[in-house]
Design brief:
Elements (H helix, E strand, L loop, with lengths): L9 E5 L5 H14 L6 H14 L3 E2 L3 E2 L2 E4 L6 E11 L8 E10 L4 H13 L3 H9 L3 H12 L33 E7 L6 H15 L3 E6 L10 H6 L2 E6 L14 E4 L1 H6 L1 H12 L24 H34 L7 H7 L15 H19 L2 H14 L4 H14 L2 H20 L5 H4 L2 H38 L4 H16 L4 H14 L8 H26 L6 H15 L7 H6 L1 H22 L2 E2 L12 E2 L1 H25 L7 H8 L1
Helix pairs in contact: 1-2, 3-6, 6-9, 10-12, 10-13, 10-19, 11-12, 13-14, 13-15, 14-15, 14-17, 15-17, 18-19, 18-20, 18-23, 19-20, 20-21, 20-23, 20-24, 23-24
Length: 680
């Protein structure tokens, strides 16, 4: 195994720029110059993206920018002792010691353990003091290698010490544990290399100072050993120092909890331990939620109103899609077999005919009597499925806010919205009303004998009365009028207006590739799909524009890896092979590996092609009655030839654009003198 740090990767008492981005870029250049990564921009983008999630500055004048990146060829450490210091977001001021940890996307466990061990060493004052007093690059390398080879720490005192050789602390309970409070903790960060383990060590050290038994489960990259169930059962409280979801959180259900970002476990470990001890003695403390208990306090960080709305809307749309997907495809099959006039025959055929009694009167465009009958059956089933669009959207928006007690009042409010003609806008309003009312009622303190009735009787009853009552008495009429106006406007879009809408939708689908903006455009298209009809095809056109535009980025990246293979790493070329299928199936996320490695060139190129595709779809009136599936639902697409042509045009434009940007929009190498100053 090659050394992860060499003297050539150490910079002493040198300025690398005025802010953290400058420092990270210069260190990324250093890693690439030593042949340990093959793309400065990709490595810099991945490290900066990680930095923007959580600042990597920690107390003591230290910063640990780090990432896992497809640009990295082998695990690498680059170290800089800065003069002057640079702010990396630590509470106690700027940093002069910066360790840049660059790990390959598929780094093995042994390398990850060594990287994690180095991160844990940086919270030891004697180690950082030695780094500051080192006079040569070779001396720094020797100190780091000594830290990586250090013997495991032994367990002492009342707290369970974290073993530096392992990703996880031991679970042996000290003899005096019965006389002390017992705490458990989980630490986790998005990358799982540095903060996860540093927070674990900091929390254990803070607990040890207070004579408290604290055992930590590190859910990081270098393996994770779950806490023993008996240890969790005996704990008085739990600390979650995490930036990602805790795995198997249900194990801690009912325990008093302190929840904070992982960096707080490094910056304020003592405060978190004290808060956990106070929560253990507080009967009203927040507890780890058990989804089977209505009204359980949320154990996560306090969510703002905007965050709640976003989460609820996306949850509602995600649960609604299966109704729309199945219904839309069945309706499309109904039209295919029964002709476009099947709508006037379907009800009568389904009720009065059968496979043994085929209809004698049917549309001229139908595929014979059998085709007409099967088309009527498919159309009717699809129509009934689409009828759940509004209630399901409202019901699951309410579910996202109030858990299971919110489903019934949400569905009722959605049904009322449909009855009032308020459409999907009414579903959103009704679902939010039902969810918030159910959530507030579920948090009321009620006598024990009444708790069993709350989720099955009281919450659905009261929330339904309030939300549905407001929809009927106050809100339904104005929302219905707004819905009619919106549908009339969309139906009347022609020429420039339709093309402009197609451009906007295309840009939204490509700007974050499955992120919030992409989901907003997709949710808008899916939610309006149920309003589509033969005489109002605008919602179907919007769906076609969104789907086609979302297919362009992954297909374009796949094509680009064929046009100019040298501009892409081996991993990207392999991703390009998969992107053909992902793009064809309308999975925009197939372009994410390329965007993560080179966002400043990949994303603008993708947006350009997607905008052109969206404009062509809207301008030529292509329709889609299916909300997903890409080219595989060709039978649900009107004017499929133009649909395919629009995608091909956008794909070629984006592919040529990204290749051109990679060829000509390249960061110029630093002058030789500057390079020498970094290396020396």
């Amino acid at each position: 195994m090659s050394a992860m740090i060499t003297p050539e990767l150490v910079v002493l008492d040198t300025s690398l720029g005025n802010d953290r981005a400058d420092v990270i870029r210069r260190l990324a250049e250093l890693v690439v110059a030593q042949g340990r990564a093959d793309q400065v921009e990709g490595l810099f983008a991945d490290a900066l993206a990680r930095e923007e999630k959580t600042a990597t500055g920690i107390p003591g004048g230290i910063a640990i920018p780090h990432c896992r990146s497809t640009a990295v060829l082998e695990p690498t450490l680059a170290m800089a002792r800065l003069e002057p210091k640079v702010d990396f977001g630590a509470k106690d001021g700027p940093a002069d010691l910066v360790f840049f940890i660059a790990a390959p996307e598929g780094a093995d466990q042994q390398h990850l353990k060594l990287l994690s061990k180095l991160a844990r060493s940086l919270i030891k004052k004697d180690f950082t003091a030695a780094l500051r007093s080192a006079s040569t690059e070779q001396e720094v390398v020797a100190l780091v290698e000594e830290a990586l080879e250090a013997a495991p720490a032994r367990k002492e005192g009342g707290a369970t010490a974290v073993n530096p050789e392992s990703a996880d602390p031991g679970t042996t309970t000290p003899p005096d544990a019965a006389r002390t409070k017992r705490l458990v903790a989980v630490t986790a960060c998005p990358t799982g290399i540095a903060h996860t383990y540093m927070a674990a060590d900091s929390l254990v050290a803070a607990a040890k100072e207070r004579g408290i038994d604290l055992q930590v489960e590190t859910q990081g990259s270098s393996a994770s050993t779950p806490l023993d169930p008996s240890v969790i059962a005996a704990a008085d409280a739990v600390i979650f120092a995490v930036d990602v979801d805790v795995r198997d959180k249900h194990r801690f259900a009912g325990k008093p909890v302190i929840n904070a970002p992982v960096k707080r476990g490094i910056d304020e470990p003592g405060v978190m331990v004290e808060e956990a001890l106070a929560a253990a003695d507080n009967p009203n403390a927040r507890r780890v939620a058990d989804s089977s208990m209505p009204g359980s306090d949320d154990d996560g960080p306090r969510e703002g109103v905007g965050g709640q709305l976003k989460r609820a809307l996306l949850t509602g749309v995600s649960y609604m899609i299966p109704f729309v997907a199945g219904g839309g495809l069945l309706i499309a099959l109904g039209f295919l077999l029964g002709g476009y006039d099947i709508t006037g025959f379907a009800d009568d055929m389904v009720v009065n005919n059968s496979l043994w009694n085929l209809p004698t009167e049917f549309p001229e465009t139908a595929q014979g009597a059998l085709g007409a009958y099967l088309g009527a059956v498919f159309f009717k089933i699809g129509s009934l499925s689409m009828g759940f669009l509004v209630p399901a959207l409202a019901g699951y928006i309410a579910y996202a806010l109030a858990d299971r007690p919110g489903i019934a009042p949400g569905f009722v409010a959605g049904a009322v919205a449909g009855f009032m003609g308020a459409g999907f806008l009414g579903a959103i309003v009704g679902g939010l009303l039902a969810g918030y009312v159910a959530m507030k009622i579920g948090k009321l303190a009620v006598p024990r004998w009444l708790r069993g009735l709350m989720p099955v009787v009281i919450i659905p009853l009261v929330a339904s009365i309030v939300a549905s009552g407001l929809m009927i008495l106050v809100l339904g009429g104005p929302i219905a009028a707004l819905t009619v106006a919106l549908n009339d406007w969309l139906s009347g879009l022609t020429g420039t207006g339709a093309v402009l809408l197609g451009i906007i939708l295309g840009l939204m689908m490509a700007i974050d590739l499955g992120g919030p903006i992409n989901k907003v455009a997709y949710a808008f298209a899916v939610a309006g799909l149920g309003a589509g009809a033969i005489d109002n095809q605008a919602p179907w056109q919007i769906m076609a524009a969104v789907m086609a535009a979302g297919m362009v980025p992954p297909l374009a990246m796949a094509l680009a890896t064929v046009i100019d293979r040298r501009r892409f790493s081996l991993a990207e070329r392999e991703n390009g092979k998969a992107a053909w299928l992902l793009g064809s199936a309308f999975i925009s996320e197939g372009a994410i590996p390329f965007a993560a490695a080179d966002p400043l060139r990949v994303i603008p190129a993708g947006m350009l092609g997607s905008a052109v595709t969206g404009a062509m779809i809207m301008g030529t009136g292509v329709t889609s009655q299916a909300p997903h599936g890409g080219i595989f639902v060709f039978f649900a697409i009107g004017n499929v030839a133009m649909f395919v042509l629009s995608i091909l045009v956008g794909m070629v434009i984006s592919a040529l654009a990204v290749v051109a940007l990679k060829r000509f929009a390249v960061r110029k190498p630093a002058p030789a003198a500057a390079s020498e100053s970094v290396a020396v």
